[in-house]
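Researcher: Go.
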Amino acid sequence: MKQVIKKVIKDANNVTDEKPIYTLLVDGNSVMKMSLVDKRLNTNGIEYGMVFQTLLQIKMQLQRKNFDFVYVVYDGDQSGKLRYDLYPDYKANRDKNYDKSDYDKAINAYCKKVLEYSKSKSSKSVEQEKEDENFHRQREILFKCLEELYCRQLIFDYVEGDDLIAYYCKHKKPNEKIVIVSGDRDLTQLIADDICVYITQLKKYITPQNHIEHIGYTHENVLIKKIICGDVSDNIKGIKGVGEKTFFELFPDAKTKRMTLDEVLEQSQKLIDERRLKKLKPLKSTENIINKVTNGCQGEDIYEINRKIIDLSEPLLTEEAKDGIDSMIHAPLDPEGRDFKNLYAIIQENNMIDLLNTDTFSSFFSSFNGLIENEKKYFKKTC
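Model: Structure:
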């Protein structure tokens, strides 16, 4: 899928500005999926709640800060491909690290699930198709609305939205301050003195100063914890027997102090040696960390593979995506063809009844006026 912004974006001049630049980066897929819980219907009985709630999330941020730029990034077609190439379906090789009893249990459970799945496959596939159709239909409406509201949008085949956000943060200007909006806590890897993450479920801005308070441990260990423990939500296997609770039981200092992989390995060996001196059997969890035992298909390369697919300091992007985002960062946005009249026509066309009243429409979208004026001024200044 090509870049969703269809209006002309002219090349930016090399303009330097010492005053702070405020940028909002929205994890589009995360916010949209969260917004699907809104089932409001238009006059034809068709859902548009996802569009409404996503616009509302952006509106709320604009009410709190006068942002110079707003970027909404999306997962492109086959967005997991770059990670799949590094980490194939773990189920294909999961038996390599099972002992016999665990393996037999796994096979029995698997057969039971296959039987249950075969009975419900047809109905589930139809339901999923409807959900996917609803999601993509609403996403197209959102694309059009955000274009008229001067929100820059990025989407590239094979690339995930969080990698676009990470790449942007890596190439931001020194005087740029960034707020990321997402439900994905992985993005707290990126927080710094000038970068914070608004976690939608928590309704909190996560910073280096409050990460321990709200998340439970220092942001400097988000990466190492996931390398060791894996990530259930992304189907990434970690070390067998080492979940988040066990990780912090073994390494309590990791809650407040940065730890490297070498330090985790060193401390694991120290714990093993201490128990052996006491004539005690070493903990299986520490032995597994040393021996790189996993239920996943990474094998002995688990630490290297997990780092590559989790570490957002080295985002996974295609060359097309890099070129596309490089050409858009701080490029002046041509105002020609963007208008509130066009936006209202989109609202009318889709019978979004909560926004059809002109007073309600004006009130709801008034928060975007500051962004629009900032973009227009920037265009005049740089062109």
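Model: Strands lie at 21-27, 69-73, 152-154, 176-182, 195-199, 204-206, 230-231, 236-237.
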